[in-house]
From TrEMBL:
Keywords: Membrane, Mitochondrion, Mitochondrion inner membrane, Transmembrane, Transmembrane helix. It is a single-pass membrane protein. The keyword Membrane applies. PANTHER family: CYTOCHROME C OXIDASE ASSEMBLY PROTEIN COX16 HOMOLOG, MITOCHONDRIAL, MITOCHONDRIAL OUTER MEMBRANE PROTEIN 25. Its main location: mitochondrion. It comes from Cryomyces minteri. It is found in: Mitochondrion inner membrane. It comes from the Eukaryota. The lineage of its organism: Eukaryota, Fungi, Dikarya, Ascomycota, Pezizomycotina. This is Cytochrome c oxidase assembly protein COX16, mitochondrial. One of its GO terms (cellular component) is mitochondrial inner membrane.
Length: 115
């Protein structure tokens, strides 16, 4: 039974091509030919993607903005000034002693609280 040779078979037609030379030099200098281009791609991609992510967050900030207290309450510029004395006299003029308790109509299926 014949033994196999420890040398790899390299065809003569593939010895001078660019991929064959790259593979041979990659075994001698793996970081220089594989690791360094990979790290450079990651760093360059980070620099190129930073403006894109900034645009994304700026667009989001334009949509969602801080509201003032007046905007929250829905008060426009044509609002009436509130005078405490005027409001006091309006409440004092009302008859607060003459009132009647009325039961609120419940929704169908809702418990009405009567025992």
């Amino acid at each position: 039974m014949p033994t196999f040779q420890s040398k790899r078979f390299v065809p003569t037609s593939a010895s001078g091509t660019l991929p064959a030379r790259y593979r041979a030099s990659l075994q001698r200098h793996p970081f220089l030919l594989f690791g360094l281009p990979f790290i450079a791609t990651m760093v360059a991609g980070s620099f190129f993607l930073t403006p894109a992510t900034a645009l994304r967050y700026e667009k989001h900030d334009r949509k969602v903005r801080q509201m003032t207290k007046d905007e929250e309450l829905g008060i426009g510029k044509d609002r009436r000034r509130v005078d405490m004395r005027e409001e006091y006299y309006k409440l004092a003029a009302k008859d607060l002693d003459d009132w009647e308790q009325k039961r609120v109509k419940r929704l169908p299926g809702e418990h009405d609280g009567i025992l």
